Amino acid sequence: MTEIIQHSVISVLIEDESGALARVVGLFSGRGYNIESLTVAVVDAEQKLSRITVLTSGTPMVIRQIKAQLKRLIPVHDVCDLTEEGPYVGRELALVKVVSSGERRTEALRIADSFRARPVDTTATSFVFELTGSPEKIDAFIELMRPLGLAEVSRTGIAAIGRGPSVFHLKKEPV
Amino acid sequence: MTAAERDAGTGNEALNGAEVLLRVLDEEGVEVIFGYPGGAVLPIYDALFKQDRIRHILVRHEQAAVHAAEAYARSTGKVGVVLVTSGPGATNAVTGLVDALMDSIPLVCLAGQVPTKLIGNDAFQEADTTGITRPATKHNYLVREPGTLAQIVREAFEVARSGRPGPVLVDLPKDITVGKAPLTKPALSRLQRLRHQGGPDAIAIARTLEAMKTAKRPLFYTGGGIINSGPEASDLLRRLARKTGFPVTSTLMGLGAFPSPDPQFLGMLGMHGSVEANMATHGCDLLIALGSRFDDRVTGRVDAFSPNSFKVHADIDPSQIDKIVPVDVRIEGDVRDTLEALLEGWGETPAPDLSTWWNQIASWRSVDGFGFTQDMTPSAIIRPQHAVRRLYELAKETGRDTFVSTEVGQHQMWAAQHFQFDKPNRWLTSGGLGTMGYGLPAAVGAQVAHPDALVIDIAGEASTLMNIQELGTIAQYRLPVKIFILNNHYMGMVRQWQELLHGSRYSQSYSEALPDFVKLAEAFHATGMRATHVGELDDVIRRMLAHDGPVVADICVAEGENCYPMIPSGAAHNQMLLGPDQDSEAAGLTEEGKMLV
What we know:
The complex is a heterodimer of chains A (175) and B (597).
Chain A: E1 6-15, H1 20-30, E2 37-44, E3 49-58, H2 60-72, E4 76-81, H3 82-85, E5 88-99, H4 102-114, E6 118-122, E7 126-133, H5 135-145, E8 150-155, E9 159-162
Antiparallel strand pairs in A: 1-3, 1-4, 2-3, 5-7, 5-8, 5-9, 6-7
Chain B: H1 3-7, H2 17-27, E1 32-35, H3 42-49, E2 55-58, H4 62-76, E3 80-84, H5 88-102, E4 107-113, H6 129-133, E5 139-142, H7 149-161, E6 167-173, H8 174-178, H9 202-214, E7 218-222, H10 224-228, H11 231-244, E8 248-250, E9 265-268, H12 275-283, E10 286-290, H13 296-299, E11 310-315, E12 329-332, H14 335-346, H15 355-365, H16 384-398, E13 402-406, H17 410-418, E14 427-428, H18 439-449, E15 454-460, H19 461-464, H20 471-476, E16 482-487, H21 492-501, H22 517-523, E17 527-531, H23 534-546, E18 551-556, H24 591-595
Parallel strand pairs in B: 1-2, 1-3, 3-4, 4-6, 5-6, 7-8, 7-10, 8-9, 10-11, 11-12, 13-14, 13-15, 15-16, 16-18, 17-18
Helix pairs in contact in B: 2-3, 2-7, 4-5, 4-18, 9-14, 11-14, 12-15, 16-17, 16-23
């Protein structure tokens, strides 16, 4: 029986309380689930809710388990599998430092322009580019920068949201 | 009128956090706490000293406090409560918490913590208790504000008992329990959203009923969820089994939900289950899992588990469904409600003709996989199975309500195989975690909950030593617990696996330098007894049962006895090892299986 490994982007709406993120991360590590990227920030200060976006992978049975296990966590309000629920927009932000001079420097700037990456810090020998896009786009940009003096990369991991008018959360709950 | 008098009864008296805590425990119906004092919980012990509504049982080790509370909870259906101090008090409790998590036992563990200002400073007896117990509990809390104390404790009880029950820990910094705290009124629970809305899905019930009406070889596979759901669920199961005429098998944790002596009961299934239960599981065409979770001790080789059946899984915890074995129908919700819906849907449908299936079951049953030969010459060595069977028969003769706890290992399996239960909540064992040392403190908890009942710990000599200090607790509270040790001088289950899988190399499994259990009993103010030959067995059991105080009975049994039937890890249900003479390779004992536990 060959198992198909699928990638899933899962959004988790969780109460912003001490240790909440540790519960989610601990669940993944404790049960041997994969985290390819994870982002978290408060999205509703009034209701004290954070949104976590996890990019994970596994067999369809494992993905179902991940969602079911997440829903068991007491502070979790809702879990949404964006990959399953329909089209979504997934974006990542990267800061890419390139240290080079001469022709390599000009080439780096030229490619950055075509990727709509903005230099947010410039010195005579370096750039820091800011770039947003899908993880694949960022991967491609980093690969192109490699021979041009790529020195350091910082990436946020994917933040994602479903396309269209439907929303998955923010039902008013008694807190 | 003083301010204090004026405020009395309005919930606004100037109480400290410890007093608020005890008020909330009282509101929650707590009658007993199992605990051990220490620096960080001194304010709570002081508040306990000043009241007389809640009883405190002083254990001798925090792990034992948790096991005692587990047995208290399991045997009463109430939430068990534990009180431990910070640092080592909390870390000692961790084994018990994981045990309760695995077996879905509702507990609230109150742990002391260093004052809020010292948290993170490596203070004396500081441990990151919420960090350590996060994966060991269903949920845990650190109380940071006095204003949240009452509500957090109330919520802890709600989390512990709602849905699939489990242990909850509340970490209580000392400044919170010493300082003033408001006894806030119960607030609307934020847990409403976690509750399962309404009954089981009507379509799922209809599909199940349809399958039940056409099945030729149906089987109910019941688990600990039936026990957790309350005695009513056991009653509904019995009625449904009567109406349908279906056979019933149970997991280790579910024993007692259906009466073991009943002809419709096939016994426990799984690694050391009965031949008929395992063969029926393998051969059935409809498997209805009720509050059971397809544990690896039950399934054996997953891809060969019940290969030709239509599967229905009813569980209160949706994450258990499709976790290990994919099923055809999923029913989420309290198994009591599911049973009720099935019973109602079945209505007055006559029981289908299952005679072919029952004839098949009868032929499997005739194998008698639990069989053993006891030489009845008085000087003959005692077979452990015979000892358990006689214990059951003689305990039954007393007519007393009987609770049985066990440690973990061969004796536990023999107890499950040979002791019969006809009521739920009477069987207290560590199923999921397999915690050696569970049985003695569990007997303490059961006896505290049921002072007039007969409480027996069926033990192994190795396991029971892991919490033997609880003989002190037994002495202090004059608990008439009977500790029935099947003493084979080995960690028997380890020895059995070493024999079958590791070329009889008995690495570290011999119980060297054992204490004299009779003298040990006496040292702890209990009565010690010993049976070395079968001729002495009945007399020792009778004297033990008749004695009104605690007894340690050292039953010297055959050293090399193995527990059969056995489905070796990695094998299927129709590949049971039935006895020592069988070729182990034919029974699927493979190198691959050796890697599994």
